[in-house]
Specification:
4 copies of one chain form a homotetramer. By secondary structure, chain A is mainly α. Chain A has 9 helices and no strands. The longest helix of chain A is centred in the N-terminal third of the chain and has 27 residues. The two termini of chain A are 20 Å apart.
């Protein structure tokens, strides 16, 4: 089966999940002090940024992985669907964090849920990655498949970081959000080699 | 007419309908007990999962069917449009179920509407499927067309299951939702054979 | 300039505008009579159907026109952008109609706005169409360009029908919505010939 | 790395951000004077128009730039991600302006935020542009790269205009919005030459 339509569907979900995040930036209800109301929204902006970065960077890695795949099979489609279901949830924990990170009662719950969502994505992506590269199942070339797997050996660090974020949610919610943002940047490191193929519309 | 832009438009609707589901996960209004409020939202999570699975799996089958089509005609475009209209509605019954499945008064109505929406999708997909494969109209190869049609003989089981779900809505709403979820998984069975063609961006 | 990315962007706007319509189907607030509340929502369902049909059918015609175009230029891109701006508005008048069509005071205003939105789309599409086919500017072949233009001679009927709908809004709002729906079906007639080219992913 | 999937993801974000703008056109709550309520919404329509134009025109320029790129690298992907994050925010300042431009207290804050959002997009686009054309890094041909860079020498005018809009927000909010709209039209001028390549689905 061709990978192109899988990419189109996946790109759609990634792009929509990222762009829907903006709906959680709520315009303050009629107020006479709009500037200060806008400043008080900073947790929502921070959550928007961390979540869009996370989605965008997962997209880059997803993109890179699929560039290496010569074909996909039905199991891959369903594993990928689980990943998309996890990515699609992101606007919900993002809204939770934006609204509750400064609340004495709700911050922990909000950031635990955020971290669980991020873990879900990381686990699903790892599953997709391992399935595709295992036994050079979908990656055409044996040597290439082994090299990509080797590059992926750092994924557990991301998983550990998200777990740390969940733990931090109980003591320092803002630090927890910072860890989630830094983990996104960690995934931005070139874990997966880019194909150097030229061109192609 | 080429199938590629039809795919792009269809993929868009599938991806958006799936991703919009998250908007029905409403952040609890200011509460001092966020954790328990989040736990009480479980029906909304369950409805999100069942609906995204349903959309994703219909997408896989749609994808597979179009891979077999050599071309599409105008009637096919309009049948497909009916399917997309049905898929696009999904967030509405999903929100209904998430909000009313535990309500003594509303659960039955919510799950009947959900089932009718699912039946609409199943009927429209069957229509698209029969139109495309009948008399090897769009599928280039006669033998292949007949084989695909044979694979589609199990579709009525899905229709029957959704009807069962509607009936169950009157006595056991939660069981009804479970039937809808299981029916999605039924459609995940490889009813339609995957082309084994290699490659191609 | 290639037409493919223009198609991707346009398809995105068409698909999103269609799928966002569902957000105007509002789940009734906590009620003990959900079934009757859902029945009373019928104007919103009707508006959803008419608008999705309109968008879908305009998409088919847009698709068909672009299939005939060998290339696009910058002016075409901006004319097309005006069309997309008009298509993107559709969820707003649709929500208006769904909410106000049965209101003694608001129905006329709602259906006038709906009709103006539809006229905007029709005018913009006609502009895109005339620009592309005039003097075989974008359509490669002179004979083909003339034939397509000839096929488009029926467009004014659509414009007249929308104008009729606006007029009817003042005396019979429900009939006005019916006219908008029928006009969508009119545009579904094969005004533009489909290329018969085979294939192509 | 191929540019095609980058385009698909970018097109998705552009198209969604544009189409989500309509959600900020809020249907007036039950009112007996719908027509006048709709007329009073004119700032929201104006903001919709200016923002959709801005997004659409940035899209055309983005499209044009990528047509010239033979390949993209990872840094380009991340610069582009920053651009998409900025584009994705647009519905938020648009809603702010639509709601507060006529308010004595909030108009300045709303239009300052709008201008900062526009500046963010302009700066990110300039970054993407300079990265791609510098030292003919991504544009294959040295002469072409130099020519494109030369065409881009007018970008600072756009940046200056947005800065002017921010300044105007403090004295004349409506004029400030007009400047943002005119700046979008400025970017519509053919700053970047269109490739004249023929064809190609």
């Amino acid at each position: 089966m061709r990978t192109s339509r899988l990419e189109a569907f996946s790109d759609g979900v990634f792009a929509i999940a990222g762009t829907l995040l903006v709906l959680e930036l709520r315009v303050p209800a009629d107020t006479t002090e709009l500037s200060s109301a806008l400043v008080r929204l900073w947790p929502a902006y921070a959550a928007y940024l961390v979540s869009f970065l996370t989605i965008g960077i997962i997209w880059v890695n997803h993109h890179t992985l699929l560039e290496h795949c010569k074909r996909v099979d039905r199991r891959f489609l369903y594993l990928n669907l689980l990943l998309l279901i996890a990515v699609g949830i992101v606007p919900f924990p993002t809204a939770l964090v934006g609204q509750y990170i400064l609340s004495a009662d709700g911050a922990t719950a909000a950031l635990v849920v955020y971290g669980l969502g991020a873990l879900l994505i990381a686990v699903a992506f790892t599953g997709v990655f391992l399935y595709a590269t295992n036994d050079h199942r979908l990656v055409g070339d044996k040597v290439e498949a082994r090299r990509i797997r080797w590059e992926g050996r750092l994924f557990p660090i991301g998983l550990a970081a998200y777990t740390l974020g969940v733990a931090l949610a109980f003591v320092a919610p803002v630090a927890s959000l910072a860890v989630y943002g830094l983990t996104a940047l960690f995934y931005a490191l070139p874990l997966l080699p880019l194909p150097t193929r030229v061109g192609g519309h």
